[in-house]
Amino acid sequence: MTLLILAYLGGVLTIISPCILPVLPFVFARADRPFTKSVLPMLIGMALTFAAVATLAAVAGSWVVDANAYGRAVAMVLLAIFGLTLIFPAFADRLMAPLVGIGAKLSNSASSAGTERASVLPSFLLGVATGFL
User: What is the pTM of this model?
Assistant: First the structure.
């Protein structure tokens, strides 16, 4: 019984931790939908993403050290692009238009789920994206 109480308290403390807080709105937003069609695919997507990133980090640790110089250059270019999007809103709109379109398409297919498959895929992709978060 003590182990069960400790496990419950550990879960509560995990929810309070700062790295979990950005994920909670995605989970709670799907609380009114069926578990098997909405929440379960999202949790599976999160778990698979966590496992893939952890496996990549464990297997490719030395490769990451070798790619550090290239990664630094890519990070500087991305930082410059993000800075330009903050300075020029029209550039930000043009740059993000494809991503907004994909998000709207996924959101519409999730809300107007005519088939079971149409509602499972957006939930799974949301879980993958949340796993990267």
Answer: 0.53
